[in-house]
Structure formats: structure tokens, C-alpha cells
Amino acid sequence: MIPESLYRWAQLKGIIVVGTGDFTHPAWFAELQDKLEPAEPGLYRLKPELAEPVDREIPESCRAELLADQPTGHRPPNALPFWSLVPLVEILSEIKGAGVTTKGVTGVYHRVLADLGNEFSILVDVPIVDIEEHSGTL
């Protein structure tokens, strides 16, 4: 594990702050002292001469510092669409007020899958009224 690698993966994932709890090993502590500079009180950043070669490899759409400066809701022009989905069994569990592994919840879950198809298409494509119709009394 080297600081440049941590920086690279943080940039690719859009992470702005990275922490390590392994700084007490003398060799790792020395490397951190050599490669990092103060960013603000209590935080450090990779020195620019080490960050610049890594930055040239990172697509602009992944650059954390560019994304952080954008207003809420901003999407780069080449961003792919995405959905934040909650598993169907967890939704049914909340509605029923019972655990996801209970007979009542798993029974409804399997009935809905049998009637309406795979879980992904149910969550994305099937209208709520159809799910209610096929789930019976929750």
C-alpha cells in the first residue's frame, strides 16, 4: 500500500478523504511524512509532484476535486444513469413490520416474484398498483 495508490483509487471512486490507521509502523510513518503535506488542520494531501502523474491517468469524470466543486445534482455530460434500489424483500419487510426471513415476508416475496417476474424488473418497471394487486394483504 503506497500513498499514490490510495490517492489513485480514491480519485477513481470520487472519494475526497482517505484515512489509514496503520501509521504507527516506522517505515509507513516515514513514507507518509515524505509524501504528504498539510492540507488543513488535521488533514494531509499527497504532494502535488506525486499527485500530478496520477491525475493524468484519471478520467476527468472521476476526479474527486472536480466533482466536489459542482453544485448538488450536477451530472457530468458523459455520466451513466443509475438507480438506487432497495431489495424487494426489505420493502415488504418494512410494510409487514416483520423480519426479512419470516414466513409471512418470504411468502409474499416469492408470490410477487412468481406472478411478476424477476426482482430487478419489479423494482424498476412494474407499477406499484400491480405489485399491490399481486402481494395480497400485507
Task: Offer a concise description of the structure.
By secondary structure, the chain is mainly alpha-helical. 53% of the residues lie in helices and 7% in strands.
Explained architecture:
- With 138 residues, the protein is mainly α.
- It has 2 domains: 3-68, no CATH class; 88-135, no CATH class.
- Helix content is 53%, strand content 7%.
- The radius of gyration is 23 Å and the shape is elongated.
- The model has no long low-confidence stretch (mean pLDDT 84).
Task: Identify the notable features of this structure and list them briefly.
mainly alpha; 2 domains; 138 residues; elongated; two-stranded antiparallel sheet
Strand order of the largest sheet: 1-2
Mean pLDDT: 84
Number of strands: 2
Q: Outline the biggest β-sheet.
A: 2 strands, antiparallel
Q: Low-confidence parts lasting 5 or more residues at pLDDT below 50? A: none
Count structural domains. Answer: 2
